[in-house]
Design goal:
523 residues; mainly beta; Immunoglobulin-like; Neuraminidase; 3 domains; 2 helices; 41 strands; 2% helix; globular
């Protein structure tokens, strides 16, 4: 049994009478009925039906998911893959099947908060959400709407295939598949800079220095050709109208890796090039293999970069976000996905973010610690070959030809686990504000890895002073081919308008654009 066989998105809100929102290609239907897809938190009960016949006979095909005589579900214990799935059937007294509910046991909070579907507007891409203005593309035309995409103004033909639009004090900047374009009126565009590859959503950002009046633009490259190098670029726009573009980082290719397997300057992709709005620091993340998964930062606008962590999937991310007290990131991985954070107090105390995974070339290894080998002088000096990791059992001498990355030494680590969300890779984010003024980080996730099921999900994350954040599932979504495991099925959050509408890009879904409202209830 696979949970992905129901042709709908189920949005389950305890505050909304358990509404099920079914999204079809031609229409949007909201109806009071049985939720067809349920993420069931261990330890929390969930009533399947609301306002339906009470004389039903309930059965579960999984002993780990209990259902009582009133149709209330509860998960006995956590489980993954098929062991954590159940079909809950409700039958009438004559044996006729009344409904079926597909349940996935999860180790996070679900069914408390959620997203309410408003509309599925027609567009190819959402490029920017700014106040109540939504900038989007359709058939290579740039359009803007100020009324929730009910009406639109066509600005003109785009200069290239668009990926993301930034609004800055120096005008609008458009990242396309081949370069950067600039416009003051969204009609006339000037080509500013060429790149060698496309970008991801969080690899195009800017910072405006209010003191110097300099606007810094940053972007990175994402390609799958193993021969290609990947770089990070910076544009500096000065008040005297001078412009300087430069390459500030470049990583060697996977092909280069074959001749230098222990190199710490290899990257298959650039995943993140984003700016901390509180400090102006630039953060860069790369992937994909353990030795290429890293998080770096620059506190001098990209002149120099330092590594914060490298060598494990916990450093492989597609989203880094910032609050007044912490830096957060998610995991773009197919195994054991979590959210992590580091406190700003670390930087305040030392004037830097110390590396948590240093390369060691002197002294000895420590039994019980985990290491990744970056150089080995002779076969057998380490229990694994170069680029592999292991947990130490004896002390081994380190030197210039026998080097390791220290992966989990508590004397170096200062990161904190925020939440384990084991199912699939975690993707992009945007900020949203509730009706009561609370800030919620909206994060999408795909089923890549399929630890629990084939559904994409959207999570909400609320920071709480002195506590771990409140992390909740807001929505579970199936692909447009629910009987097929599609790795990247998801809703990518693009932004929230001033009227409270949150816009998503659907990937592998029945519709391309989704417009939703957030309903948040604290745990």
């Amino acid at each position: 049994m696979h949970i992905a066989i129901i042709l709908a998105i189920s949005v389950i809100l305890s505050a909304c009478g358990k509404e099920t929102v079914s999204i079809n290609k031609s229409k949007v239907e909201v109806k009071k009925s049985v939720p067809k897809v349920v993420s069931l938190s261990v330890g929390n009960s969930f009533p399947v039906l609301s306002g339906q016949p009470q004389d039903l006979v309930w059965t579960s095909d999984n002993p780990l998911v209990a259902v009582d005589a009133n149709g209330v579900l509860s998960a006995v214990s956590d489980a993954i893959s098929n062991n954590g799935k159940a079909i809950i059937s409700a039958s009438k007294q004559d044996g006729t099947l009344f409904s079926q509910t597909y349940v996935t046991i999860v180790n996070w909070v679900a069914n408390r908060s959620g997203l309410i579907l408003v509309d599925t507007p027609k567009a190819d891409n959402i490029l920017l959400v700014d106040n109540n203005s939504v900038y989007f593309s359709k058939d290579f035309q740039l359009m803007v709407s100020n009324d929730g995409m009910q009406t639109k103004i066509t600005m003109g033909t785009l200069p290239d295939i668009p990926q993301k639009l930034l609004k800055t004090p120096y005008g609008f900047f458009l990242r396309t598949t081949t370069g950067i374009y600039r416009s003051s009126d969204l009609i006339n565009w000037s080509h500013e800079f060429s790149v060698r590859a496309v970008s991801l959503w969080h690899t195009f950002s800017y910072y405006y220095d209010v003191d110097t009046k300099i606007c810094y633009l940053y972007t990175g490259e994402y390609n799958v050709n193993p021969d290609d190098k990947h770089a990070v670029y910076r544009g500096k726009y000065f008040p005297d109208k001078n412009v300087e573009w430069a390459k500030v980082l470049e990583f060697d290719s996977l092909t280069d890796w074959t001749t230098n397997p222990g190199s710490l300057n290899i990257a298959r992709h650039v995943h993140v090039v984003d700016v901390d709005p509180y400090t102006g620091h630039v953060w860069v993340a790369t992937g994909d293999y353990d030795l290429h998964a890293r998080i770096m930062y620059s506190d001098d606008h990209g002149d120099t970069f330092r590594t914060v962590g490298i060598g494990e999937q916990k450093w492989r991310t597609l989203s880094i976000w910032f609050t007044e007290t912490h830096i957060y990131w998610n995991m773009d991985s197919s195994v054991s996905q979590s959210i992590w954070r580091i406190p700003r107090s670390v930087y305040a105390a030392s004037g830097k973010w110390p590396v948590m995974t240093p390369e060691l070339s002197s002294g000895t290894t420590i039994p019980g610690q985990k290491y990744l080998v970056t150089a080995s002088s002779v076969t057998g000096h380490f229990p694994v070959s170069v680029v592999h990791s292991y947990t130490e059992t004896v002390s081994r001498t380190l030197g210039s030809s026998d080097r390791v990355l220290s992966l989990n030494d508590p004397s170096y680590l200062y990161l904190e686990l925020v939440a384990k969300l084991d199912n699939g890779s975690q993707w992009y984010h945007c900020w949203a504000t509730t009706s009561t003024g609370d800030k919620i980080l909206i994060m999408g996730a795909s089923p890549e890895g399929a630890i629990r099921d084939w559904n994409g999900r959207v999570f909400g994350i609320k920071e709480r002073l002195g506590m771990l954040p409140d992390v909740q599932e807001l929505l579970s979504i199936q692909s447009n081919k629910p009987d097929t495991y599609i790795y990247y099925t998801q809703l990518e959050p693009r932004g929230q308008s001033a009227s409270g509408d949150i816009y998503f890009i659907g990937r592998g879904t029945t519709d391309r654009i989704y417009k939703m409202k957030l309903k948040w209830n604290d745990q």
